[in-house]
Design a protein that fits this description.
By secondary structure, the chain is an all-alpha fold. The protein has helices at about 1-10, 10-30, 30-35, 40-65, 95-115, 125-140, 145-165, 170-200, 205-220, 225-240, 250-255, 260-270, 270-280, 285, 290-310, 315-335, 340-375, 375-380, 390, 395-405, 415-430, 430-455, 470-475, 500-525, 535-540, 550-570, 595-600, 605-610, 615-630, 640-645, 650-660, 665-715, 720-740, and strands at about 70-80, 85-90. It has a two-stranded antiparallel ribbon. The relative contact order is 0.07. NDH is composed of at least 16 different subunits, 5 of which are encoded in the nucleus.
């Protein structure tokens, strides 16, 4: 009976947030004054719709586990004789797992946003965009055809454009949303060409059918291998842009210009997850082509390593986490390339909850910092202004520490199980990729604990924002935490700067900005800064302000996300050590209630942990190095620490630091060779259009205008003989032209 119900009611999941989003946006447009009075009601309706979608997903998933069925319902969308476009719903384990992931993460983000965006003028608009975003992603995962996937694929891109540029009055946000939109258009164009190519080869847009036909044609050598690889790589170009793979990753770090809740949703369960979902959906098609598999695996490996190195020296808290997402997405793309799409999806799930926890935790920190240092992202998101936050914000600090441990691959947290699977498989398939995956794991532990030590341990540094030591530390801190270059002889008197709301920020921050610009200018030129601290600014406050823990609506999602960060990794682990390959098409998500039945032999668990010792040691080494570099001032200071800090003066370390701060110089060359080239070609096309296309049309128009004027004046007397004479001349010329 459920097979019928599942087909009939699967539409509820994407429709609930879509309908509420449209109603919210329409009401806000037609009745802007009325909607302000009921803004909280709009939030409740949007949250409730997504909770209904989440419960529906859980019910469908429960029945699917019982019935072990894949259900598909299609109806004609564009019926034609030569081509028939269909639309409908596909209900299988992959669909329902992604649906649960999107709805659970989206619900928590919406609850969190009620407090985070409470005083924003675009509160109602934000919820309308947020519901549209989740509805687009849910529509994508339920799509049974490539055409329907492409429609929702574009809706996901449009929603991300609206949310990244939500604060469009800020120039950086406006540029960031345009950058994300244009970069994704490159991948989407390739994706569209790949869809047309698969239809040319298989004659179908339905995913299950075209994968079977493509595999059959490729195995029988009925299709040219070069054409087949080109088509698959064109399809893969869509996930390259959507999931921020090298070289189309440049939009992801700038996407943090949007509100922090949307950053959490983009990096956890929606936009970047769409690319991984598509690769998993068409994996049976990809795995028949070894060349494409190899290219995909190396793209993922390079992206993982590149993202980890670019995160080394970033000062913006959200941008550090963005490069972390890029690196972990590289793992997820690497996994299908080496033949294990199951591990990619497993890591997608574990990473989603951990990264949502980290981003929402960073939002809690930023929300608290804004009350102290103002609303400029260069200050409220700057990790060098933070420190000791775990003491002042215990819930945020503890949950952030939990997410950090998980992302570093420390057992038994979630990401350990999935990341270890990918690393183990990489070593078996390709040792070079194994080295890259293992090295990236160590780098991940290093930069994640760098973030934790600098933000959560030690002393709170924002109160010293205008002192010489703080500004020099901000601009001179090296990759390895060396602060020997700070001139201790100038201005040892501590100074405190207290901001209370926007009025104090605008009144007092002008003088502080002058001091900051003065120091930055001297540091850039290499001169020794001479800072004269004003006594009235130094003594402007005696009671020092400190961050405070966020309210209940912001800490509740952090606590809830801490549970899957701890336990979700156990759900996808095969503790039986059997030869059966558990994947998403079977029952690879093992219910926790069956653990005792499946694990009667504890030796299986011991064997599994033994196999993961190598990756754990690498991660712990990264944690230890980060502790020596950034954590010694907070805890201990030994001889080995002093010796290790000598590396901070090496040219090699400084090269890595500059590489990270300048984003690997990729944006620089991207601007020179791509952006400027496109602008130059656009100007040439504009000139061609204005002078040749428009010029020829305008020229013929002008010729007709002046010719008619001349004829009008020539025959201005109105005498018929003149007209007859002109007619005869024209006839004679036609005869001569025809018979000459």
């Amino acid at each position: 009976m459920f097979v019928k119900l599942s087909n009939e009611y699967a539409w509820i999941v994407p429709s609930c947030p879509l309908v509420v989003s449209c109603l919210t946006g329409l009401t806000a447009f037609l009745f802007p004054k009325v909607i302000k009075r009921f803004r909280r009601l709009c939030a409740v309706s949007n949250i409730s719709s997504l909770i209904i979608a989440m419960l529906s997903s859980y019910l469908l998933f429960r029945q699917q586990v019982i019935n072990h069925s894949i259900q598909q319902y299609l109806w004609a969308w564009v019926p034609q004789n030569d081509i028939c476009l269909e639309t409908g719903f596909l209900v299988d384990p992959l669909t329902l797992i992604m649906s649960i992931l999107v709805t659970t993460a989206g619900s928590l983000v919406m609850i969190y946003s009620d407090s985070y965006m409470r005083y924003d003028q675009g509160y109602v608009r934000f919820y309308a965009y947020l519901s549209l975003f989740t509805a687009s992603m849910l529509g994508l995962v339920f799509s049974p055809t490539l055409i329907q996937i492409y429609v929702f694929w574009e809706l996901v891109g449009m929603s991300s454009y609206l949310l990244i540029g939500f604060w469009f009055a800020r120039s950086t946000a406006a540029v960031a949303c345009q950058k994300a939109f244009v970069t994704n258009r490159i991948g989407d164009f390739g994706f569209l060409l790949g869809i047309l190519g698969t239809y040319f080869i298989t004659g179908s847009f339905e995913i299950c059918e075209l994968c079977d036909r493509f595999t059959e044609l490729n195995s029988s050598l009925s299709v040219n291998p070069i054409v087949a690889n080109i088509v698959v790589l064109l399809l893969f170009l869509g996930p390259v842009a959507k999931s921020a793979q090298f070289p189309l990753h440049v939009w992801l770090p700038d996407a943090t210009e949007g509100p922090t809740p949307i950053s959490a949703l983009i990096h956890a369960a929606t936009m970047v997850a769409a690319g991984i979902f598509l690769v998993a959906r068409i994996f049976s098609l990809i795995q028949t082509l070894p060349l494409s598999m190899s290219i995909i695996s190396w793209v993922g490996g390079v992206t993982a390593l590149l993202g980890a190195t670019l995160a080394f020296s970033q000062k913006d808290l959200k941008r550090c986490l963005a490069y972390s997402t890029m690196s972990q997405l590289g793992y997820m793309v690497l996994a299908p390339g080496i033949g294990t799409s199951r591990s990619a999806l497993f890591h997608l799930i574990t990473h989603a909850y951990s990264k949502a926890l980290l981003f929402l935790g960073s939002g809690s920190v930023i929300h608290s910092m804004e009350k102290l240092v103002g609303y400029s992202p260069t200050k409220s998101q700057n990790i060098t202004f933070m420190g000791g936050l775990r003491k002042f914000m215990p819930i945020t600090g503890t949950t952030f520490f939990l997410g950090t441990l998980s992302l570093c691959g420390i057992p038994p947290l979630a990401c350990f199980w999935s990341k270890d699977e990918i690393i183990t498989r990489a070593w078996l398939v390709s040792p070079p990729l194994g080295w890259i995956a293992s090295l990236t794991a160590g780098f991940t532990a290093f930069y994640m604990f760098r973030i934790y030590f600098v933000t959560s341990e030690g002393d709170f540094r924002a109160n010293d924002i205008i002192s010489e030591e703080t500004f020099l530390y901000q601009n001179k801190i090296s990759l390895w935490g060396d602060d020997a270059s700070i001139n201790k002889g100038v201005g040892n008197t501590p100074s405190y700067f207290y901001l209370q709301g926007k009025e104090a920020e605008h009144k007092d921050l002008a003088e502080v900005s002058l001091i900051s610009n003065f120091i930055e200018k001297d540091l850039t030129s290499g001169d020794t800064p001479q800072l004269q601290v004003q006594p009235d600014v130094v003594n402007c406050c005696l009671d020092l302000p400190y961050p405070k823990e966020s309210d209940f609506l912001m800490t509740l999602p952090l606590i809830v996300l801490g549970v899957p960060t701890l336990l979700i990794g156990l759900v996808g682990v095969n503790f039986t050590q059997t030869e059966t390959d558990l994947d998403l098409s079977s029952e690879w998500l093992i219910p926790l209630t069956n653990f005792l039945e499946m694990n009667k032999n504890p030796d299986n668990i011991v064997e599994l942990l033994k196999d993961s010792i190598g990756s754990v040691i690498i991660s712990l080494a990264g944690v230890f190095i980060s502790f020596l570099v950034y954590g010694q001032n907070q805890f201990i200071q030994t001889d080995i620490t002093k010796n290790f800090r000598f590396l901070g003066n090496s040219n090699y370390v400084r090269v890595i630091q500059k590489w990270s701060i300048n984003r690997g110089y990729i944006d620089y060359y991207h601007d020179i060779y791509i952006v400027r080239t496109v602008v130059y070609l656009s100007k040439l096309v504009l000139l061609f259009d204005q002078w040749l296309i428009d010029g020829s049309v305008n020229g013929f128009g002008a010729l007709g205008f002046f010719s008619a004027g001349g004829i009008r004046y020539a025959g201005g007397s109105g005498r018929i003989p003149y007209y007859i004479f002109g007619l005869l001349i024209g006839i004679i010329l036609l005869f001569l032209l025809c018979y000459s």
